[in-house]
Specification:
It is a single chain. The chain has 254 residues and is α/β, with parallel strands linked by helices. It has one domain: NAD(P)-binding Rossmann-like Domain (Rossmann fold, 3-Layer(aba) Sandwich). Helices cover 39% and strands 15% of the residues. The protein has a 7-stranded parallel β-sheet with strand order 3-2-1-4-5-6-7, with helices on both faces. Helix 5 links the parallel strand 4 and strand 5. Helix 1 packs across helix 9 and helix 5 packs parallel to helix 6. The N and C termini lie far apart (39 Å). Keywords: NADP, Oxidoreductase. Belongs to the short-chain dehydrogenases/reductases (SDR) family. One of its GO terms (molecular function) is oxidoreductase activity, acting on the CH-OH group of donors, NAD or NADP as acceptor.
Length: 254
């Protein structure tokens, strides 16, 4: 079997209907994994037929990550009928506002989706794996904002900094039980979340300042996350845990 083969594995993915999450989903499917996509609705997204065209199974499970009660029941509902080998926490939301004007409800909504939901899902899948004596892989999608303070995104950077620390804390407790917990930290990536930065005139000066600082010379694309996700989901990363692999074109090195 190839070191990077995911044949016979099933991945549970949040945020897999677009952007980075969709690219990760397709990357895992291309290497043999079957997928279960966590969506707020049961509407068919572009991801599901794309995965099925690769010859892999793809199911949708409904869960609103903004609703803590729904999140708390998700893992038990899924493992009752499926064997999960890989968990990918990619769903995230953002709100831009000066810190002194940042509304509490925006902050709380971001924390629920970006930090509390991954905490619950990691905890519950690990508890299941431990009870079954099963190995597992957890991939949390953090951000370069896990390392930098940012401007006008205090809720987002707080959530992503917390997700990185959760990744490390969970690894400390579970790596010895066969559960690898790692993070991917994307840099500036062309997604729906960054569309305003890429297009709106009010962000022109900020936008123009970004590319000169990226040694690769361009914004990243969601597809740039595929390789590292496959690595972290596969047996190639069995001795890697508690790490955040930065995929930013060299941004943090400057």
């Amino acid at each position: 079997m190839s070191l990077f083969s995911l044949s016979g594995k099933t991945a549970l993915i949040t945020g897999g209907t677009r952007g980075i999450g969709q690219a990760i989903a397709l990357g895992l499917a291309e290497h043999g994994a079957d997928l279960i996509l966590v969506q707020r609705s049961t509407n068919v997204s572009d991801t599901q037929p794309a995965v099925e065209r690769l010859g892999r199974r793809c199911e949708v499970v409904q869960c609103d990550l903004a609703d803590r009660k729904q999140v708390e029941g998700l893992i038990s509902r899924v493992v009752a009928t499926h064997s999960i080998d890989i968990l990918v926490n990619c769903a995230a939301i953002q709100h831009r506002s000066p810190a002194e004007d940042y509304a509490t409800h925006h902050y709380e909504a971001i924390m629920q989706t970006n930090l509390t939901a991954p905490f619950i899902l990691c905890r519950d899948i690990a508890r299941h794996w431990i009870s079954q004596g099963q190995r597992g892989k957890i991939i949390n999608v953090a951000s370069v904002a896990s390392f930098q303070g940012g401007i006008n995104v205090s809720g987002y950077v707080g959530s992503k900094g917390g997700l990185l620390q959760l990744t490390r804390a969970f690894s400390n407790e579970w790596a010895g039980r066969g559960i690898n917990v790692n993070a991917i930290a994307p840099g500036y990536i062309e997604t729906d979340m960054t569309a305003d930065t890429l297009t709106e005139p009010r962000y022109a000066a900020y936008r123009d300042s970004i590319i000169p600082r990226i040694p690769v010379g361009r914004w990243g694309k969601p597809e740039d996350m595929k390789g590292v996700a496959v690595f972290l989901a596969s047996q190639a990363s069995n001795y890697v845990s508690g790490e955040a692999i930065v995929v930013d074109g060299g941004w943090l090195a400057r």
